[in-house]
Amino acid sequence: MDLSKIKLIVTDMDGTLLNSKHEVSSLFFELFERLKEHNIIFVAASGRPYYGMTSKLETIKNDIIIVAENGGLAIQNDNVLLSNPIKTDNLRKIIAVVNSIDDAHPVFCTRHKAYVMSKSERLLELLSEYYHNYQVINSTSSIEEDVYKVALFHEESSEKFIYPSVKVLESDFKVKLSATHWVDISEIEANKGTAIKNIQKKYKITTKETLAFGDYNNDVEMLDNAYYSFAMENAHPVVKDIARFETTNNNNFGVEAILEQVLRDKMRQITN
What we know:
Elements: E1 8-11, H1 13-17, H2 26-37, E2 41-45, H3 50-56, E3 65-68, E4 73-76, E5 79-83, H4 88-98, E6 105-109, E7 114-116, H5 121-130, E8 134-136, E9 149-153, H6 158-161, H7 163-166, E10 173-179, E11 182-187, H8 192-203, E12 210-214, H9 220-224, E13 228-232, H10 237-242, E14 245-247, H11 254-271
Parallel strand pairs: 1-2, 1-12, 2-3, 7-8, 12-13, 13-14
Antiparallel strand pairs: 3-4, 4-5, 6-7, 6-9, 9-11, 10-11
């Protein structure tokens, strides 16, 4: 595998670039500085909100493209490249279905804040990590901003207890398992793959010049748009089935190992 022609690198955050403590390694930041020397465009793509992603990547946020809310929002140097919020009528449809599901805890995700009506202690604990800028509300009528994504939390398993009830929405919306406890719902075009295609078009980059890393089902469209698609060792079986390659897990520097190979191949190309 020769990675010397790579011009665009895209990585998911949780379960991929971040370790199980939700940390970005110092090794990654060292490798990133070397990638910049080769004019490689770097994209962080996550189900996390924009403000949650920048807090993890504060020192390099002005040097990368951030694709937040599973592709609903893409920002580069404070410039919005892509914005695909849920339409008002569609949000009402989603809320009607969500309200019929027992033990589903919805989080309404906007660019600057998350809104939640649940008082689940487990959920509020997780919000401090994933959506630290959140507000507990009594009614969705309190939300005045555009909602990019409705994230549904289940304390045991979203795949088992939430997904079967929201599958009915799949013909009109993007419905994705994004982690063990989460199912995300957004506009059908609001996915990481659409965001990556827009970036590829903007910079005239092909799929064969694109490398991507992912671990969960909300990464599928993104991986489909990269010839060098890598599933993490800890990835969901669906992701392993569609990715062309695999790397080690997120606690064993799986992303960094491939980035090191990119740099070795780039240097070999220069010296030959």
